[in-house]
Structures are given as C-alpha cells and as structure tokens.
UniProtKB/TrEMBL annotation:
<dbReference type="InterPro" id="IPR011096">
    <property type="entry name" value="FTP_domain"/>
</dbReference>
<comment type="similarity">
    <text>Belongs to the peptidase M4 family.</text>
</comment>
<feature type="active site" description="Proton donor">
    <location>
        <position position="413"/>
    </location>
</feature>
<feature type="domain" description="Peptidase M4">
    <location>
        <begin position="186"/>
        <end position="333"/>
    </location>
</feature>
<dbReference type="Pfam" id="PF07504">
    <property type="entry name" value="FTP"/>
</dbReference>
<comment type="function">
    <text>Extracellular zinc metalloprotease.</text>
</comment>
<keyword id="KW-0479">Metal-binding</keyword>
<dbReference type="InterPro" id="IPR050728">
    <property type="entry name" value="Zinc_Metalloprotease_M4"/>
</dbReference>
<dbReference type="InterPro" id="IPR001570">
    <property type="entry name" value="Peptidase_M4_C_domain"/>
</dbReference>
<dbReference type="InterPro" id="IPR023612">
    <property type="entry name" value="Peptidase_M4"/>
</dbReference>
<dbReference type="GO" id="GO:0006508">
    <property type="term" value="P:proteolysis"/>
</dbReference>
<dbReference type="GO" id="GO:0004222">
    <property type="term" value="F:metalloendopeptidase activity"/>
</dbReference>
<dbReference type="GO" id="GO:0005576">
    <property type="term" value="C:extracellular region"/>
</dbReference>
<dbReference type="Pfam" id="PF02868">
    <property type="entry name" value="Peptidase_M4_C"/>
</dbReference>
<keyword id="KW-0482">Metalloprotease</keyword>
<dbReference type="Pfam" id="PF01447">
    <property type="entry name" value="Peptidase_M4"/>
</dbReference>
<feature type="domain" description="Peptidase M4 C-terminal">
    <location>
        <begin position="336"/>
        <end position="510"/>
    </location>
</feature>
Length: 511
C-alpha cells in the first residue's frame, strides 16, 4: 500500500503551518496568497501528502489527497504549484466542487453496500466474487455533487481469468451504485522475444539467483501455472539462463527480468526517476501465471507485474513493450493515479502504451526494434498482427482514431487509442512514414497536416503532464490542458513544441 503522511488540523493556521512545513513560504498577507484561500479548503478538510516534484528552476509541484471530517475523499486529490520563492501560482484539482455533505452518518448499514457491490461485480462478469474487507465510508467527489458513500472492494476473477479487485462506490443514503473501477490493470540469458541479453543475477550459495541488485533488487519468480502467492525463485547453476524456447521455464523469466531492467534504466536515464515509486526500490515479476492465460497485469497490492503464457502456454506475454506497459501502470498509480475507467482510464492505458513504445526505442535491441505498435511480438490475435496501432488506432478494429462524446463508454484499452494517436502525431507528424522498416500512415480529424517534434520531446511533455498536472479524474480535454502546461513549462508558450501539442490534440479532435 502507498505510504502517506497525514497533515492534521482543521484551522486555517494549522493548514498554513502544514504547507509551510512542506516548503511553502508565508508570502504576503493578502487573502489571495493565503494557502487556505488559495487551495480553497473547507474547515473540515485535511490534506494527505503524496509527494512532490521539483523543477530545475525550483518550482515545486506538491500532490495531496484530501479527507473531510476524517473521511477519505475520492476524487479530491489536488496538486499545488508554487514558484521558487514559495508563492502559490496555481492549484490543479480533480474536482472543483466544494467538498461538503449534510451528514457523515450513513442512512444505510454497510452490509447493504456490500450486497450491491457483489451484484455489480457479478454483473461485470466476475467469478468467485467476495468482499475483500468491510465497506469503508468515503466522500465520493469524482463526479457530480459530493456525496457520502461506501467503498467496497470485491475480489475474484475477471472474465479472462485475470484477478479482479473491483472498487464499487455506493450511495450511503439510498444504496444506489454510483461508480466502479478496477485496480488490477491489464497491458546473460536468452529470451523468447529479446534474444541473448544481460540479466541481473547474484550468487546464492552454490547457485545463482535471478535478482538485480543494481536496480532496486528486482526479482522474477515462477508461479508454475498457479495463481496465488509470490511463486518460486528462479535459480541456476551456471548463470546462463533460458534457451529462447517457451518449453524452458527460464526463458520467460529472462524476458521479464530484462524488460524490468530496461524500463528501470529508461525512466532513470530519461527522467531521473529511480524506480516505479521513485524511491530506489524495485517491484517484482511473476511468470507462468495460470494455464493458457492470455494477458499480463499490474497489481498495486503486491507491487508486482504478472505474465501469462498465452494460448497453449507457447506465447508468454513477456515482450519488452508489455513489460514496460505494466511497470508504467505502477508509475501512473504513484503519480496522477488516473482512475481506471472512462476517459481517465483510457489515458491510464495510453500512458502505459506511450512509455512502452519509448522503452522499445530506448533499448535499441535488434531482436525487437522500436516501433509504434503494441504487442506485435506476442501474437495475441494468432495472425501476426499487433494488439494496438498508435499511428492509426482503428486498425485494430475497435479503437477510434479521434475523440467523440461517447469515448468514455468504451473499454479503456480502446478509448486509449485517441491519446496514443495524439502521441504519434506529436512525435512523428501526420501522413506516411517508414520507421525501422514499419510503414505508418497517420490521419488527422480535420485533414490538416501535423508536424512532429520528435519522440524524446513528446515523451518529456507527457511525463511532466502526468507527474505534475494530471489528477485522478483527468479526461481528454484535461489532458490537452495538462500537456500544454507541461510544454509551456519545458519549452515556453511561444515554442514550436507548445504549438505542436495544440495541433496534435486538434488533429485527434480534442479542442
């Protein structure tokens, strides 16, 4: 679970003092510069610090969760941006609604909420559904007017065998289901996809352990087709792992271990980020999940990536882009924490695809050259085609190329297409292009040409938007605002990069 530190107190003076303690200066006495007034907190609200990002010029972006009368506020997260001198310049909120409810006494008992949640999980196709713990009181503020609610976590299996941890929000007054979202999110040795590569290992007694102490201690485990627990540690007598074939258990482990290492290096070398939570500590990987399981997933609860072996247990989902995709879900959870449903869920998925593509290019591995295709190596479709296409998302038969008002109703793996398309346009521009032997032809909604600024600049803009300007409820229009702010911060408002961000969003009909 994420570690947080509570800033307690309900008075203006106490909140101001708490902000001072995290680096805010008192500033002028004018109301507009008072921390309480600037943030717009009510007397019953408290802040829970989640972390800060400091720009090279000293600008600080401090991220917080909120509570109301001691009750967690879902959708109440915010980012406070302050200038190098300490003055608050702006506050980015997940909701502009005033956090206030008539009473914090629920009209219905918790068992009623649990019953509603279990019904919702079963309706969503969950198998073996059961409440993980008793429902907890929350304030639901992510959409509409804030309301006292229950949050029930239901565990089980999704329709494809992926573990499920479904959060169901129920009105504490009338028992109506308000919302639901999933938190188990799905995207030298010789690996099946990456060829002969170096992998982190350590001597352990008379054998070697597949553990990378140079990158936070990342370790890969063998579930041996089970679905519970951490699994068995991989060991080897001569420190030569895998044979490139799926019938050897170590082969998938090599790909998973390599993918984790390259992703760690990409984030560190590109953004200075040390691990998923930026704390120097690694997650871990589990391979050989279940039988014939055609998926991979990230789980915050175990802080781990898990990979199935695909159809017939012959196509493990351990390709480099899949590994980077899953690890990036962890980065998103540790930063903007984009809710995994609706448009925010699409942006969550797109963030993982965007960074996965960047990791592939960064790796410069001849066995898996960089491209703007997702899952092209794992052959989920059985015909050699990719899972997703960033230049023209509709090539997968499900994802739209452009934003429309009903986009948020789609599965998040399809609503992500619009942001993937935006990133391709921002990086490479519209029209026909050949990169590393792959042909692309990217359209725009209005037919106007878009000129790209290069993948590296585009990635820096997206990462800064994710870590400093997006919140849990950011939608596509909010993503446009966030990336424009990021481009302005990095390159200036009159820069080519800023103008390209605006043009690329317009190209996918986000205006």
């Amino acid at each position: 679970m994420r570690q947080t530190s509570r800033i307690t107190g309900i008075s203006t003076a106490t909140v101001a003092a708490a902000l001072l303690a995290t680096g805010f200066s008192a500033g002028p006495a004018a109301a507009k510069d008072d921390p309480w007034t600037s943030i717009g907190l009510g007397s019953k609200e408290q802040l829970v610090a989640r972390g800060t990002v400091t720009d090279p010029d000293g600008t600080v972006h401090a991220r917080y969760e909120r509570t109301y009368d001691g009750i967690p506020v879902l959708g109440g997260d915010l980012v406070v941006h302050r200038a190098p001198g300490g003055k608050i310049e702006e506050v980015t909120k997940a909701t502009d609604a005033q956090i206030k409810v008539p009473t914090t006494r629920p009209g219905l008992a918790a068992p009623s909420a649990e019953k509603t949640a279990l019904a919702a999980a079963r309706a969503a196709g969950a198998k073996d559904a059961s409440a993980a713990r008793a429902p907890r009181k929350v304030i639901w503020a992510a959409s509409g007017k804030p309301v006292l609610a229950y949050e029930t976590v239901v565990e089980g299996l999704q329709h494809d065998g992926t573990p499920s941890r479904l959060h169901v929000i129920t009105d504490a007054g009338n028992g109506k289901k308000l919302h639901q979202f999933e938190t188990v999110v799905t995207g030298t040795g010789t690996g099946q996809y990456n060829g002969k590569v170096k992998v982190g290992s350590v001597k352990s007694g008379k054998s070697f352990l597949l553990k990378d102490n140079a990158r936070g201690g990342h370790q890969t485990y063998n579930l041996q087709h089970g679905e519970e627990g951490k699994g068995k540690a991989f060991t080897d007598a001569d420190d030569v792992w895998g044979n490139g074939k799926p019938d050897m258990a170590q082969t998938a482990a090599v790909d998973a271990q390599y993918g984790a290492a390259v992703t760690w290096d990409y984030y560190k070398d590109t953004f200075g980020r040390k691990g998923i939570r930026n704390d120097g500590k690694a997650a871990y990987s589990r391979v050989h999940f279940g039988k014939g399981y055609v998926n991979a997933f990230w789980d915050d609860e175990c802080f781990c990536m898990t990979y199935g072996d695909g159809q017939g247990d012959k196509k493990p989902l351990t390709s480099l882009d899949v590994a980077a995709h899953e690890m990036t879900h962890g980065v998103t959870s540790a930063t903007a924490n984009l809710q995994y449903n609706g448009e925010s869920g699409g942006l969550n998925e797109a963030t993982s695809d965007i960074m996965a593509t960047n990791v592939e290019f960064y790796a410069k591995n001849a066995a898996d050259p960089g491209d703007y295709l997702i899952g092209e190596k794992i052959d989920i479709n059985g015909n050699g085609t990719a899972l997703r296409y960033m230049d023209k998302p509709s090539k997968d038969g499900e994802s739209p190329d452009f934003w429309n008002p009903k986009l948020g109703e789609l599965d998040v793996h399809y609503s992500s297409g619009v942001a993937n398309h935006f990133f391709y346009l921002l990086s490479e521009g519209s029209g026909k292009k050949v990169i590393n032997g792959v042909k692309y032809d990217s359209p725009t909604q209005d037919g106007k040409a878009v000129k790209g600024i290069g993948r590296e600049a585009a990635a820096k803009i997206w990462y800064k938007a994710l870590t400093t300007y997006m919140t849990s409820t950011t939608d596509y229009k909010g993503a446009r605002v966030a990336t424009l702010k990021a481009a302005q911060s990095l390159y200036g408002k009159n820069s080519t990069q800023y103008k390209a961000v605006a043009a690329a969003w317009t190209g996918v009909n986000v205006k």
